[in-house]
Amino acid sequence: DVKVTQSSRYLVKRTGEKVFLECVQDMDHENMFWYRQDPGLGLRLIYFSYDVKMKEKGDIPEGYSVSREKKERFSLILESASTNQTSMYLCASSLIVVGQVLHGDNSPLHFGNGTRLTVT
Amino acid sequence: AQSVAQPEDQVNVAEGNPLTVKCTYSVSGNPYLFWYVQYPNRGLQFLLKYITGDNLVKGSYGFEAEFNKSQTSFHLKKPSALVSDSALYFCAVREGDDKIIFGKGTRLHILP
After folding, report:
1. Could you report the per-residue pLDDT of A66-97, keeping only the tens digit for each?
2. Which of A23, B19, B23, B104 would bridge B81 by S-S if both were Cys, CB 3.0 to 4.6 A apart?
3. For residues B47 and B60, what is the distance between their CA atoms, to the nearest angstrom?
4. Which residues of B fall within a CB distance of 8 Å from A29?
5. Counting beta carbons within 10 angstroms of the beta carbon of residue B42, is it exposed (0 to 12), middle (13 to 18) or buried (19 or more)?
6. CA B104 – CA B102 distance, rounded (Å)
7. Main-chain dihedrals φ then ψ at residue B62, nearest 5 degrees
């Protein structure tokens, strides 16, 4: 079973602090994703990565950056936290290769349990 | 651009009754469609997917979904609801590349 682990379940930070959210997956997946989840808005993609040291902007990258130095680890960084970044952050990984269709019973995205970040 | 819509914020169903959670999509090519479920304080869990083939897709926990190309819909269904089915359900669509677009979610309440 794929396991995606997010290092913190709950985090409280002050405005202006630098915040690191860590995510580790144990199935050698190439692709990793960071989403934020807000009521009424669903999941919105912040950044994703297809490989080590590669990153692509999602739909709402402003105010965030990412790091992928190792295949199993994908970090989300808030350079200067703001109150509008209070949210649930979800990390996910997948085995999908660009341009190919995934068959079989494997789940396309495997999610961690989320980090609820509060910025005060 | 691809998009997905879940027209209902909340659905209430009595235990034992059939349930339907609605999803419509918009893509320019062939859609790859997914349903995920989120239980309280947990991440999303995959339920089922439509890639190609049979329009009726069966998934986990007794759920199924029907792909309807003419109506661009992919509604989630279950013949007999359980209280434990109460959760937040997300429909998602992927077209071409790896980027998956999620709907805003529908909260399902199963009433005992």
Report:
1. 999 999 999 999 999 999 999 999 999 987 65
2. B19
3. 5
4. none
5. middle
6. 7
7. 85, 5
